[in-house]
Design goal:
Protein name: RNA polymerase sigma factor SigJ
Keywords: Sigma factor, Transcription, Transcription regulation
Largest sheet: 6 strands, mixed
CATH architecture of the largest domain: Up-down Bundle
Family: Belongs to the sigma-70 factor family. ECF subfamily.
Distance between the termini: 39 Å
Structural class: alpha+beta
Number of helices: 10
Number of domains: 2
Strand content: 5-15%
Radius of gyration: 21 Å
Organism: Saccharothrix hoggarensis
CATH superfamily of the largest domain: PhyR, sigma-like (SL) domain
Shape: globular
Pfam families: Sigma70_r2, Sigma70_r4_2
Length: about 325
């Protein structure tokens, strides 16, 4: 990626591949540009989602930056479309994140990111996201300042250099390095310990989903870590625990209580942000999506998203 891929300097500063044909008809150039933007769209949505935490907002950011790209290209052809677009999307997502932080102060209960569920998204809106960015890690990123989060995501996940990140956050490369140091420390302190999938890991996943589906209290207690933490997000519209639930006994009773209320729903296993998860389905409708973390064969964290605007419309399961 170019150190000078600055969308705010599109009429002055372009680097990268061979220049586009300035004499090409405008309609042909727009089609060419649209094809390239479609190709890189999953990466752009991944950048935006990692920063703002919801797919809808990420898609809005990427759509907005397409309009900016088309307008900039009319002035002078953008040679490195991907470099330009990543910077533009990251800047716009940072603005959205700063605004969202203010709005989330009054959120009812814990605010959780929107879960990315395999098979739930339209192919046009697929997200390219490093497997290391688990749902639990997305929650940890919420504890960072917007500048720290942007620095960590762009540098650690998407491989941008510090000078490139500096263009996005509006600080010097030296200042960005300091942001990176603080962000790494916060992430290291808050990131959950996660097992690489093994036979033991798979047994814990299967046992947890089966116990939740059957409302099996003793089965849940057998697979929960004594200090397991559960958070749930209903967006103020769905009745969930508005405070985190701590401890195996409390979490097990909470989950079996939820299961008793959802007698018509199927509990199915699925992949959430690249890790183990489950969902409650009524026919094709999704009632909630859960993500959980496994360490040493026990579930150490459970996060449940029931806020309607964060749930996939259909899972096709």
């Amino acid at each position: 990626m170019s150190d000078h891929a600055d969308p705010d300097q599109a009429d002055r500063d372009h680097t990268g591949a061979e220049p586009a044909d300035a004499d090409a008809p405008a309609s042909e150039r727009l089609v060419e540009l649209a094809d390239e933007y479609t190709r890189i769209r999953p990466r752009l949505v991944g950048v935006a989602y990692s920063l703002v935490g919801t797919l809808a907002e990420a898609q809005d950011v990427v759509s907005d930056c397409w309009l900016r790209l088309a307008a900039a290209d009319e002035q002078e052809p953008v040679r490195d479309v991907e470099a330009w677009a990543v910077v533009a999307v990251a800047r716009r997502a940072l603005d959205v994140l700063r605004s969202a932080r203010v709005q989330r102060v009054d959120y009812v209960g814990p605010w959780l990111p929107e879960p990315l569920v395999d098979g739930a998204d339209d192919p046009a809106d697929r997200v390219t996201l490093d497997d290391a960015v688990s749902f639990a890690l997305m929650i940890v990123l919420e504890t960072l300042t917007p500048a720290e989060r942007t620095t960590w995501v762009l540098h650690e996940v998407f491989g941008m250099t510090f000078p490139e990140v500096a263009e996005v956050v509006g600080r010097s490369p030296a200042a960005v390095r300091q942001l990176a140091v603080r962000a790494r420390a916060h992430v290291a302190a808050g990131a959950p310990r996660v097992d690489v999938e093994t036979a033991e890991h798979r047994r814990a996943v299967d046992a947890f989903v089966r116990a939740v589906g059957e409302g099996d209290l003793s089965g849940l207690l057998a697979v929960l870590d004594p200090d397991v933490l559960l958070t749930s997000d209903g967006g103020g519209l769905v009745g969930v625990a508005r405070r985190p639930v701590l401890g195996a006994d409390r979490v097990a009773h909470f989950l079996t209580g939820v299961r008793r209320k959802l007698v018509e729903e199927r509990i199915v296993p699925l992949t959430v942000n690249g890790g183990p998860g489950f969902a409650a389905l009524t026919d094709a409708a999704t009632r909630f999506v859960g993500s959980f973390t496994v360490h040493n064969g026990l579930v150490t964290r459970v996060d449940i998203v029931a806020a309607p605007d964060k749930l996939p419309r259909e899972l096709g399961l």
